[in-house]
Specification:
The protein is α+β, with helices and mostly antiparallel strands. The protein has a domain of about 80 residues. It contains three helices and three strands; from the N terminus they run αββαβα.
């Protein structure tokens, strides 16, 4: 399984977010082994990033923080959230030219229609 680390424990009411973040990380690793997933939460939202895709996108777009956000109001059904994260993770891999499944270490490819400093229109 990928390295899991707790960066910040957060507030007591966020303990369920921590459990959910760990479950999402486990399931992403199970479906897409060896990919460098990072699951965190901030302001009640869960944030899922692929570290290598995030780095490539940041270098190309010249802005940090590429990933998917699972809003607080959607977190009341953990099973659904985990499933959504798995599906979105796979879609993210495909968007960047990576195969679903185990990572072979290949570099992600920025979609052709993206441009530096782009702020909207990602899909």
């Amino acid at each position: 399984m990928s390295d899991l680390s707790i960066v910040e424990w957060g507030e007591p009411e966020e303990s369920s977010y921590l459990a959910l973040a760990l479950e999402i990380a486990r399931e992403l690793d199970k479906h897409y082994p060896a990919h460098p997933w990072e699951v965190s939460f901030q302001g009640g939202a869960l944030i899922v990033r692929h570290k290598t895709i995030n780095a490539e996108a940041a270098a190309y777009l010249r802005r940090e923080g590429f990933g998917m956000v699972l809003p607080k109001d959607k977190l009341d059904n953990p099973k659904e959230v985990v499933h959504s994260a798995i599906m979105a993770g796979g879609a993210m891999l495909e968007l960047f030219g990576l195969k679903r499944g185990a990572w072979d270490g290949s570099d992600p490819k920025i979609p052709k229609d993206w441009r530096p400093r782009q702020e909207a229109g990602f899909a």
